[in-house]
User: What shape does this take?
Amino acid sequence: MLTIRFHDIFAKFSKFFLKKNNSGFLLLKYSKKTEICNIFEIL
Assistant: This one.
């Protein structure tokens, strides 16, 4: 359930990072196993 719910959030964040910072988006996409931690670290 958490992964599905987080997938929607990640989709929104991915669009934001894609516009804001391409390297940040790639970093998040690269680290799939620790998605949540990476998002909060970058933010």
Observations:
- The two ends are 24 Å apart (CA to CA).
